[in-house]
Amino acid sequence: MKTAIIGAGLAGLSCALTLEKHGHTADIFEQRKEIGFRYDIAELMTPILHAPIDDSVKFFSETYDIHLKPTSNVQKIFVHSENESAYVEGNIGFINMRGQYRESYEKQIAQQLVHSKIQYDSHASYEAISKEYTHVVLATGDPQDTQQIQPYDIAFPSTFAGAIVKGDFVRNEVHTWFNSQFAPKGMGYLLPHSKTQATLVIVYPQYEDDWIQNRKGFWEAFVKQASHTLNQEVVIEKEFTITDYMVGKCRYPRIGNTFFVGNCFGAITPFLGFGQTGSILSGIYAAQDICGLGDYEALCKPLFKDYDDSLVLRRGVEKLSNHQLDLVTRSLHNSMVKKVVTQPNMSVLKGLSHVLKPFISK
Ligand SMILES: Cc1cc2nc3c(=O)[nH]c(=O)nc-3n(C[C@H](O)[C@H](O)[C@H](O)COP(=O)(O)OP(=O)(O)OC[C@H]3O[C@@H](n4cnc5c(N)ncnc54)[C@H](O)[C@@H]3O)c2cc1C
Question: Count of domains in the chain?
Answer without folding.
Answer: 1
